Amino acid sequence: MQGFAAGLLKDYDAVRNGLTLAWSSGAVEGAVGRLKSIKRQMYGRANFDLLRRRVLLNS
Length: 59
Prior knowledge:
Elements: H1 2-10, H2 12-20, H3 26-41, H4 48-57
């Protein structure tokens, strides 16, 4: 618990902004995470065209 609290204090400005500002980058982070997951599943199997099709198909 102390390590978690220390991490929050270390990045206090980001934590405060995340809790007080009206906008959030959560949707962008989710999209990036989904894309990275698809890329990991396809590692070494295909080129960019197939990756593009999979990303657009799963949207």
